[in-house]
Amino acid sequence: MARCARNFKLSMLAARAFKSSPTFRTSGWPRPITEWMFLRCHHARPPRWAEQFGRVLVEALWCGVPVIGSQSGEIPWVIESTGGGLTFPEGDVDALRGCLEVMRADPALRTRLAKRGRERVERMFSVDAVARRFAEQLEAIVPGFAHASHYR
Q1: Higher pLDDT among residues 42 and 62, named by residue
Q2: Nearest to 73 by CA among 50, 46, 54, 90
């Protein structure tokens, strides 16, 4: 509770301080808002949970971009099941650096990972693929589910 009150006071001070500052655009946001958001984020703590799926990874792979992710939560599963990237132990900066260097130094690897990742994401996570699996699950629960045959 005290932390929330302190953050609220800091937010109000920041808002008052930036009222008189000049406004110009930074990444689409007016500068006072950008600076205020930075001050707010400075006091925020990083999440304390492991990524449960890795949607950003799937979106990147769908766009044909190879990915690098930490071995945390479901991130390794997404990367390994799609074959579209590299993983490193969570918090290991040297291992991350190594993955980045490997990707930078090997354009053929980037191309292979991107192609494989895109193909597998389309096969596993496209709207049709997810709808088909969902219909199969419904069919298993409710035999004769009318729409299940549409996705087969």
Answers
A1: 62
A2: 50
Tokens representing 100? 């980045």
What pLDDT digit, counting tens, does each position of 18-39 carry? 444 434 334 454 555 444 444 4
Does the domain made of 55-141 have the CATH classification 3.40.50.2000?
A: yes
The rounded distance, in Å, linking the Cα atoms of 27 and 76 is 32
Distance (Å, whole) CA 98 – CA 62: 24
Domain map of the chain by residue range?
2-42, 55-141
N residues, the chain:
152
Inter-residue contact 135 to 86 (CB < 8 Å)? no
CA distance 65 to 57: 9
- Note whether 87 and 38 are within 8 A (CB): no
